[in-house]
Amino acid sequence: MERDVLLRVEGLKKYFPVVQGKLLGRQIQQLRAVDDVSFEVYKGETLGLVGESGCGKSTTGRSILQLYRPTGGKVFYDGTDLMKAPKSDLRRLRQKMQMIFQDPYASLNPRMTVSETVGDPIRIHKLLPRQKIEDRVKELLEMVGLNPAFANRYPHEFSGGQRQRIGIARALALQPDLIICDEPISALDVSIQAQVVNLLEDLQEKLGLTYLFIAHDLSMVRHISTRVAVMYLGVIVELADRTDLYENPLHPYTRALLSAVPIPDPKVEKKRERIILTGDVPSPIQPPSGCRFRTRCPLAADVCAAERPAFREVASGHSVACHFAA
Q1: Helix, strand, or coil here: 260?
Q2: Which of 20, 83, 100, 280 is 20 to 30 Å apart from 121, CA to CA?
Q3: Cα distance from N-terminal residue to C-terminal residue, the chain
Q4: Contact of 15 with 71, CB cutoff 8 Å
Q5: How many CB atoms lie within 10 A of CB 51?
Q6: Cβ(293)–Cβ(233) under 8 Å?
């Protein structure tokens, strides 16, 4: 059965200029944060995007929403090319695409009450009469598990987990179809992380939401995701169904990542081989030729330096960028 594609990303690139000189700086190089990334997100699913810090996950999410203007590539939301959409259309489409930010402390304005923060998107897009906004804010707070009586409080009066719930309520205010979750639990205590993830799953089931879930916690990504994409130094190296990826990883980098995930069984953990990667992550300013991972890969050969591996489907729904994957 063919599934409906809500988001399609084709050859997405985002380069940041590296300038020399403080006053009249001239560009001397480019930092290739995202370099030719392609994937699809189906309606109603959760696509997990994982990788090391600095690999370009958050930049990918922000470029999709056009918070960063992409350097190249195409982004289609429900068939509409966001790169070519006029500002008026983009404003309308942004109602359907929202983001939950990583840091619940920095993403809320300390001078705005919860009611103002959650109600602001509704006011800006003029979705409801002013007298009905307050009722909608209380409804949203209840939806994310907060007491509506807290609506007139300020962010400093809440814990980290409660602040993240306020951020989720703000993302839901415009009734979006797609939410990009940019590491929404990484700044929270472990005991609170599960609560927030369970909330996101409940909201997805209740409202029919689609998530792009960006994270580096592989065990949490396995729990919440339908499919998982693995990113390394600005490129996606593997994409598959979560069960297939975790049980049969094909890319050496994916295998190394999964070998670091602890297993709650001492006997299995003792027998398991841990893959330790050597060397440092190369700079995105001057990435390696050919395969980005070759400088740390135990399988690296001459072909890896000479030729960039194609991102190809090697099994049904399982794609990988490696010369030696079969």
Answers
A1: coil
A2: 83
A3: 25
A4: yes
A5: 24
A6: yes
What pLDDT sits at residue 14? 96
Distance CA 65, CA 77 (A): 10
C-beta of residue 193 within 8 angstroms of C-beta of residue 220: yes
Determine which helix (DSSP H) or strand (DSSP E) holds 135, and give its type and residue range. Answer: helix 130-143
Residues in the chain with pLDDT < 50? none
**pLDDT given at position 271:** 67
> Residues near 15 by Cβ (< 8 Å), separated by ≥ 6?
30, 31, 32, 33, 35, 71
d(CA 125, CA 131): 15
DSSP state of 284: T
Residue 55 to residue 315: CA distance in whole angstroms:
26
In the chain, the amino acid numbered 189 is D
* Residues in the chain, total: 326
Spatial separation of the C-alpha atoms in residues 297 and 196, rounded to whole Å: 36
Which of 233, 315, 264, 326 is CA-nearest to residue 37? 233
The predicted model scores a pTM of 0.92
